[in-house]
Design brief:
CATH architecture: 3-Layer(aba) Sandwich
Number of domains: 1
Strand content: 35-45%
Number of strands: 7
CATH class: Alpha Beta
Distance between the termini: 23 Å
CATH superfamily: Gcn5-related N-acetyltransferase (GNAT)
Structural class: alpha+beta
Low-confidence stretches: none
Number of helices: 4
Radius of gyration: 15 Å
Strand order of the largest sheet: 1-2-3-4-5-7-6
Length: about 150
């Protein structure tokens, strides 16, 4: 497979994200309205595309002069473990650097071992836990933080 192209998420891509979102997150998935809201708020969203179409997406919200939150990173199941998540994370961290963020935070399901491994490789450490954060599964979320600028 070729490296995915990272592009700006546009409103017309949202319908193509929804099947991925549904497959990965089921009843805890984001709705089209939630993605629309993120775009309307001016948050930084990207898609990863290859010859098969959209294979992943990710978003970042700069929440202060020195802080940014990764809103989501999702990779289509048939392209997981092929570098798509890393490419999206690299892009988000580069944008956080451009915006002057000195730390980046995220929330991840406590049972999402592949995502946890990726984030730890990039220097994220656990700083908190949100009990029962993901509903309706009542799964805890780990809050993770990465200090400093620069990518992996």
């Amino acid at each position: 497979m070729t490296e995915p192209q990272i592009e700006r998420l546009r409103w017309w891509h949202i319908r193509d994200l929804l099947p991925i979102e549904d497959d990965l997150f089921g009843p805890e998935r984001w709705s089209a309205a939630m993605f629309w809201s993120e775009l309307a708020a001016g948050h930084y969203y990207r898609i990863a595309r290859d010859a098969t179409g959209i294979v992943g997406y990710a978003g970042l919200a700069a929440t202060g002069p020195d802080e940014a939150w990764i809103q989501n990173i999702a990779v289509r199941r048939d392209r997981q473990r092929a570098g798509v998540g890393r490419a999206l994370l690299d892009d988000l961290l580069a944008e956080a650097d451009r915006r002057g963020a000195t730390h980046v935070l995220l929330e991840v399901a406590v049972d999402n071992d592949p995502a946890l491994a990726l984030y730890r490789r990039y220097g994220f450490v656990e700083v908190g836990r949100r009990r029962g954060y993901y509903q309706p599964s009542n799964t805890d979320a780990l809050v993770m933080r990465r200090e400093g600028s620069g990518r992996e």
